[in-house]
Structures are given as structure tokens and as C-alpha cells.
Amino acid sequence: MPKMKTHSGTKKRFKFTGTGKLKRRRSGLRHILTKKSKKRKLLAGHDALVHKSDEKRIKHLLTK
Known about the structure:
Layout: H1 8-13, E1 15-16, E2 22-24, H2 38-44, E3 48-49, H3 52-62
Antiparallel strand pairs: 1-2, 2-3
């Protein structure tokens, strides 16, 4: 039986940190930026951690 493939969309969107947590991009930095505050845009430019309740599902897609 062949190996299970990693979910391609998930591997492009998430990365593991050194301690094993999952890192993700924040949304809201693609378009309509004039009405958003500088603080909001700066925060959106930084990575965030995946919420604990979603981690199990995403790890399953990444480590098949």
C-alpha cells in the first residue's frame, strides 16, 4: 500500500515552530488597506500561533 500524502494546501499555509507549535499567517493584508489603521496592518504582518482547539486537525493533515 502506498504512503499517505501530506495535504498540499495545509503544508503551504502552516509551519512548525521549534517547540512543535503551529504557526500561521494573519488575514487582512491583501487589499482595501487605506481604511485600516497602521497598528492593525503591522499586527497583520506578523505570524500568529494556531489555536489549541484547531491544532490536532491541522497536525493530522501535515503528518500523514
